[in-house]
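Dear H.,

Thanks for agreeing to be a second pair of eyes. The structure we're designing against is below in token form, covering all 215 positions.
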């Protein structure tokens, strides 16, 4: 949904994919606009996006340029069409998307639109065989109490070899970083990765919910 969600939720896994020789595409759904943000801040965020894209080595970056914090005010079909065009172009076999129950409205709308695009009977057309949802510290954990929409991880990826690079990339988002002990502090992100790692007996891991797998 927003620049930095990818790093918070699956940055280590993206780096692991890249090290395995996989092609990576990054889709950024939203963009900030004046007067909501100053011209100076908007320019800084564009520099951050460029630096992050280079750090991961994305093969393709899609920018939908939809207004941030306003996805729930747009016709859902508009978002679906934009997403479908990107998926049709890149044809990924695996998609990482934010959790459906996140507190941020942009996250919830984007998840709904993405799943509308990735209907399983279209797999032969769009090529997506696996969909994983990730957790975003300060959004997933802040969601209202609703057992039906809780983040309950079922897939874990060992990112021990990539956690330092993930944190380094997160550090490029100077406009988004928070001081310790807030959620988007680097030591907080390391702590979450350590907890997820302990779950599967490794040093650091990222956790996901398996949304769908077509074999």
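And this is the sequence the design step returned. I haven't edited it by hand at all.
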């Amino acid at each position: 949904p927003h620049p930095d969600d990818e790093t918070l939720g699956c940055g280590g896994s993206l780096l692991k994919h890249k090290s395995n020789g996989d092609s990576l595409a990054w889709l950024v759904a939203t963009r900030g606009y004046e007067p909501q943000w100053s011209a100076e801040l908007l320019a800084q965020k564009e520099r951050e996006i460029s630096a992050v894209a280079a750090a991961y080595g994305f093969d393709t970056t899609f920018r939908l340029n939809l207004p941030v914090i306003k996805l729930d005010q747009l016709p859902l079909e508009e978002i679906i069409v934009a997403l479908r065009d990107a998926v049709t172009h890149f044809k990924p076999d695996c998609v990482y998307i934010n959790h459906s129950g996140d507190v941020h409205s942009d996250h919830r709308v984007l998840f709904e639109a993405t799943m509308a695009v990735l209907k399983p009977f279209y797999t032969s057309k769009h090529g997506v065989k696996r969909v994983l949802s990730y957790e975003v510290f300060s959004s997933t954990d802040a969601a209202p109490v609703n057992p039906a929409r809780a983040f309950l991880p079922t897939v874990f990826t060992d990112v021990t070899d990539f956690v330092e690079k993930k944190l380094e990339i997160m550090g490029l988002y100077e406009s988004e970083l928070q001081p310790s002990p807030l959620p988007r502090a680097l030591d907080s992100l390391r702590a979450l990765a350590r907890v997820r790692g302990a779950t599967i007996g490794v040093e650091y891991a990222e956790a996901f919910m398996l949304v769908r797998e077509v074999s």
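Two observations from my side: The radius of gyration is 16 Å. Residues 39-56 form the longest helix (18 residues).

Warmly,
E.
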